[in-house]
């Protein structure tokens, strides 16, 4: 069988970046609706509740990854991601910041943290991501994290759009996104270099690209589920959050 | 801590059946649309393509279950399910029959069997089911199969509705459903008795009920994804089947 030669480093990087151009969830209509002020308060709440589930699983995903890495240097480099989300004695983590956003949109943070009301389709997609990272080759696992390449742009658009269009939006409420603007580029520079170094055959490059596509599917499916359940005509599945549930007293 | 007493057998069975009344996917608007003739040919095709993925994973799910069962009698009783789907030397299995339905609606069976074009959300939901059966206690795994309790009604409605409303529908095309009318009740009588026998504490009854709810979520999420992608206004996610792809020559 003929072996196809690997793409050179620049061409392979360009191929990975093109996946973001074609499939990253900043192209999903829900994000346009959110950033342009088109979402109702309940649509924003549904997004906050469901996206919380994704946030909450990221450190579990990173722990699953580290549980398979025998190189202490790689584990050390990766550990920061868990600290960024879970926090340290000295600084608050991303999950706590996300719950401040929940509070700002009138949701009881305890309700959001309970994960009740999360759409089953959100769970299925997010759990698929955690399991992918737990089960697949390390290269695929790292490559699936590279959607962070495309994240700073969406975070910047989100800060700008939410501040302009929604009363709840202020620096405290949006601190999660502001913080990710500096955290994500550090993580992804490491991850991208690691993938470019380790994808040294065409087969591995193809696997890494497929892993990144898989991850864009995970993100896209969450917004499809959100739209299907909560944007008119809403078809909320049995057991999922219904407007009016889980509100802070003042908002109820 | 006070232990809540288990429900008696009849009350527990009624509780399980009530889950079907509240959450089984025969209540989803896609099924009403399908059985009443409201689906376009492409909507029927999208359903056949995506539901194939579910069918294809059922014997893998059953093998995952059997891989954890140390009792030869239980394995023997369960093995029939794999034979029903995969077939034997002497008789055709459910997957082959599903591909005949694919052909009847104008799809290339090889395209359908390739699993290309399956919605990511379908994969996430179905894969979650396979993993649930692989990872959870055996009682939960058996309980999750009890949606078959509710299946004969939906298969009967489907045969009746498809025959009345769609040109493609004939006995050969619908043989999958006709066959399940006799297969499913046998399986589920065994599974239900097993769950009623083994859920001998309130905690286990609660877990079994939660497992059955989880399975209704798996089925419901597939129809939500189908509606979101293919019913107007269609929002087909990147990479999924687009009308016109995978057709038989005569239908193209």
Topology (SSEs and partners):
The structure is a homodimer of 252-residue chains.
Chain A (H helix, E strand, L loop, with lengths): L8 H15 L5 H7 L5 H26 L5 H15 L7 H11 L4 H6 L5 H16 L2 H7 L6 H15 L9 H24 L3 H29 L22
Helix pairs in contact in A: 1-11, 3-4, 3-5, 3-7, 3-11, 5-10, 7-8, 7-11, 8-11, 9-10
Task: Tag the structure with descriptive keywords.
homodimer, 252 residues, mainly alpha, Heme Oxygenase, Chain A, 11 helices, pyrroloquinoline-quinone synthase activity (chains A, B), Haem_Oase-like_multi-hlx (chains A, B), PqqC-like (chains A, B), EC 1.3.3.11 (chains A, B)
Describe the structure in your own words.
Two copies of one chain form a homodimer. Chain A is mostly helical. Chain A has a single domain (9-232, 242-251), classed as Heme oxygenase-like (Heme Oxygenase, Chain A, Up-down Bundle), CATH 1.20.910.10. The first copy, chain A, has eleven helices and no strands. Chain A has helices spanning 9-23, 29-35, 41-66, 72-86, 94-104, 109-114, 120-135, 138-144, 151-165, 175-198, 202-230. In chain A, helix 1 runs parallel beside helix 11 and helix 3 runs parallel beside helix 7. The N and C termini of chain A lie far apart (66 Å). Chains A and B meet through helix 7 and helix 11 of A and helix 7 and helix 11 of B.
Integer tally of domains of chain A: 1
CATH class of chain A: Mainly Alpha
Structural class by SSE content of chain A: mainly alpha
Q: What is the subunit organization of this protein? A: homodimer
| Number of strand segments of chain A | 0
Gyration radius of chain A, rounded? 19 Å
Terminal-residue CA separation of chain A: 66 Å
- What's the tally of helices of chain A? 11
Which protein chains make the most extensive interface, counting residues with beta carbons within 8 Å of the other chain's beta carbons? A-B, 26 and 26 residues
Mean pLDDT of chain A: 94
N-to-C series of helices and strands of chain A? HHHHHHHHHHH
Share of β-strand residues of chain A: under 5%
Overall helicity of chain A: 55-70%
CATH level-3 fold name of chain A: Heme Oxygenase, Chain A
CATH arch. level architecture of chain A: Up-down Bundle
Low-confidence stretches of chain A are: none
Major β-sheet annotation of chain A: none
CATH level-four homologous superfamily name of chain A? Heme oxygenase-like
> What is the approximate shape of chain A?
globular
